[in-house]
Amino acid sequence: MFGKLIGEVFGTFILILLGDGVVANVGLAPRLAAPAYNWNTITFGWAFAVIVAVYVSAGVSGAHLNPAVTIALAFKRGFPWKDVFPYIIAQVVGAFLGALGVYLVYMDGLVKAGMPNVWCTGPGSVFGQAFWGGAGAASAGGYSFVNAIVAEIFGTAVLLWGVLASGDSKNTGLMHNLGPFLVGGTVLAVGLSLGGPSGYAINPARDFGPRLFGTLVGTQGLFADGYWLIPIIAPIIGALIGIYLYDLLVSKNLPAK
Fold this sequence. Notes:
The chain is mostly helical. The chain has helices at residues 2-28, 39-61, 67-76, 84-105, 107-112, 135-139, 145-166, 179-194, 204-216, 230-249. α3 (67-76) runs parallel beside α10 (230-249).
């Protein structure tokens, strides 16, 4: 069990190091003129962050890397309930350490910029006050909390469909260990198609661990309102809806093998 928890810590660390890393890269634009970076950069960066993290940790822990995935697998795939809380703690610790890694890599730029929120989603994030300017910056963040909840539920449900399909031997199936690419591609699709209203946390640990770290290093307002609960609760709801719908609409209709 200790080895599995280390796998979850390390995998989630990689996820946030590369995921929040691309957000910092876009927000601070340290090497290119700011317009060279855009939403596509962020979505592709997060997708490959998932791919690398899953490849590294899947053989050790199953690469949940997400409390919503862990809880959904406990409900419908026989993952032991006694392991759920340890997995979640490991994921939050890994996410916190990943944010520390981003801070160390981008420390000078973050300090000079006043420690902006490159850590987590919601009001005050770089999505709401885009450092690169442009027409989109004025309208970013204009969605209600209810709209953000809906987006997180849909986004996490889609994530579960990709995760479940990637490991479903009765479905089309993936050969030669290509499952992580489907999971990463699902995250890319969610970011490109559904990520606008909430910033697509779709992972409670991904949001909460860096939110804690950002608060400690001086980013303001990360717990100023109730928004921080949305990326914790809504992804869990979305994951449960996603796994139940997959079994209802897909699993029960697959041919026996």
